[in-house]
Amino acid sequence: MELNKRGSILILIAQVIILSCAYYFIRLDDAYIFYKYAKNLAEGNGYTFNLDERVNATTSIMYPLLLGLVYFLLRIKPEILFPLAGTLLSILSLGLSGILLSKIFKKDFQKFSVILPLIVLAMPQIKNAIGMETFLKVFFIVLSLYLFQNKKYELLSFVCAILILTRPDAAIFIFVLIAFYIIEEKKFLSLRQIMIFILTIIPFYVFIYINTDSLLPTSFFAKIFQGRNKIIAGEFIEGFVLNFPGGRNFALMFYLIIILSLMFLLKFRSPIFKNKPFQILLVYSLFQISVYSFILKPPPYPWYYAEYIVVYSIILVETYRVVSEKFLKRTDGAILIFIMIIIYSLGVILPIKTIKNGYGEKFLLYKNVASNINQYSNQSIKLAADEVGILGFYFKGKMIDELGLIHRKFDYDNLEKYFGLTVKKNNPDYVIIDFPDFPKYKSYITQKWFKEKYEEFYTLKYFYSGVKVFRIIR
Question: Is the pLDDT reported for residue 221 higher than 50?
Fold first, then answer.
């Protein structure tokens, strides 16, 4: 058992180090919206993306505040600090989640609980949410389950408040948790529990309202509109396959394994289905997928699907346990170490490939475009684009978001028919489109008014993708 403990710690540390080094190269555009908010906040410019436009455009209050605090304390160059901090927070949140899960399910998994952190960190979907608030949300969900299991309900109220500040859609999880609490305790929440929750979130929402005049983020309405009007291709449910690292075939194989594992566990009447934390996770996951698929209907952004890795991991570990005990009849340290090495090997294939490939083309394109335009601009210059995170972080002037995420008022009623309306209204000095294939909502660049007002400035092309820059005719 001692060999098993030492081996698991060493393998887990190695996995965390490799993941941290590899996923530093992943630069999601929306993560840079958080980075820009955090940078402006720490530099005393307020909770804002554009300096002259106070807008609540983030899906998390807690995450940019946490990043801003890190920047304020360390004062490392923002271009280095924020991607590093975002990557480390993501990986450490997942690692701690795995360790907590191994404690929650220690009785069910027995010796196999040591595999759980490795399984969590081996999931390919991690790549889809690096730098986002997703894994911080996962950590607080797992911590909530741990506190629920140990009946520490007042501390649980505080953690649930932090969870809702980390991402508002966690309200779905809290609703499910309350339902299980009422069934378990046969009573409703105490006044003390309710007040702990309310008093924790109030100061943050007062801060947001004072700074932005809005409690709900603009991105909430913008993304729902995008999904319902098919501005971003695909249904939410399709995203499980469309956004799976490795492609469609790998996704179908992965989900087939999960389905077969569930059927296998049901056949052998696995006790995991009687475990309350697992029941909560399962109900929450199904409930959330239903809400997103049939009510909210947002576009299939890749990070939406990353938090389900917790459920997948539990199913896989329990399958390993049942197979081992039913068929191998052995659970000694040597077997566990062998399994952990296999999991570790599988878990670092994608990260090592990421290190080999380096930065993605989109990040390099947007960063270089922003740097080039900065040579001809100042803070009064406006740049219009449909992805504003990376561009906005590196660009010195004001970003005009054609998808409406970072603006207080946006004409959603006319967006589908007159997508170029925001360009007409704001008269940006520069407009960026994807090249050679631009999205359908960018068709305004072929219209007479745009051709009369803008000229091609330059084109930047890499192997798989490129952008074309237009500038206003002086």
Answer: yes
Poorest-pLDDT segment among 17-31, 94-108, 277-291, 332-346: 332-346
The answer on pLDDT for 198 being more than 80 is yes
Three-class secondary structure of residue 213 per DSSP? coil
Strand 382-385 with 398-401, pairing: parallel
Computed over every residue of the chain, the mean pLDDT equals 90
CA 209 to chain centre: 24
- Give the strand pairing for 454-461 and 466-472: antiparallel
pLDDT band at 336 (very low <50, low <70, confident <90, very high): confident
Could you write out the three-class secondary structure of the chain? CHHHHHHHHHHHHHHHHHHHHHHCCCCCHHHHHHHHHHHHHHCCCCCCCCCCCCCCCCCCCHHHHHHHHHHHHHCCCHHHHHHHHHHHHHHHHHHHHHHHHHHHCHHHHHHHHHHHHHHHHHCHHHHHHCCCCHHHHHHHHHHHHHHHHCCCHHHHHHHHHHHHHHCHHHHHHHHHHHHHHHHHHCCCCCHHHHHHHHHHHHHHHHHHHHHHCCCCCHHHHHHHHHHHCCCCCCCCCCHHHHCCCCCHHHHHHHHHHHHHHHHHHHHCCCHHHHCHHHHHHHHHHHHHHHHHHHHHCCCCCHHHHCCCHHHHHHHHHHHHHHHHHHHHCCCCHHHHHHHHHHHHHHHCHHHHHHHHHCCCHHHHHHHHHHHHHHCCCCCCCEEEECCCHHHHHHCCCEEEECCCCCCCCCCHHHHCCCCCHHHHHHCCCEEEEEECCCCHHHHHHHCHHHHHHEEEEEEEECCCCEEEEEEECC
| Residue 186 region by backbone torsions, left for phi larger than 0, else alpha for psi between -120 and 50, else beta | left
- The reported pLDDT for the residue numbered 1 is 42
pLDDT tens figures, 39-56: 999 988 888 899 888 888
Query: Can you tell me the distance from the alpha carbon of 365 to that of 7, in angstroms, rounded to the nearest whole number?
Result: 42
In this predicted structure, the answer to whether residue 327 has a pLDDT above a threshold of 70 is yes
Reported confidence tier of residue 409, pLDDT bands at 50, 70, 90: low
Q: Which residue has the higher pLDDT, 338 or 14?
A: 14
The crossing angle, in degrees rounded to 10, of helices 78-104 and 309-323 is 40
